[in-house]
Design goal:
- The chain has one domain: Arc Repressor Mutant, subunit A, CATH 1.10.10.10.
- Helix content is 54%, strand content 0%.
- The protein is globular and about 30 Å long.
Amino acid sequence: MPAQPADAPRSTRRITARELEVLALIADGFSTREIAQRLWITDETVRTHVRRLLNRLGARTRAHAVGIAYRDGLWSRNGEAG
């Protein structure tokens, strides 16, 4: 992943493609178990991705993370990565 400028929105720093996949599924209302099944990973791996996302985005909840990602343009209204 390319280096981000110091003034980049916090949400664009160090977010991996897999974390964006997890975040998009959260935005679509999927549970941890449903995300794990869709991505062929364990529930614990999903929880790790969510924990890292919350930390990297400075979010308190999964819903807050989705709001930050939308606000900072990580994806557009139609769900495409931005």
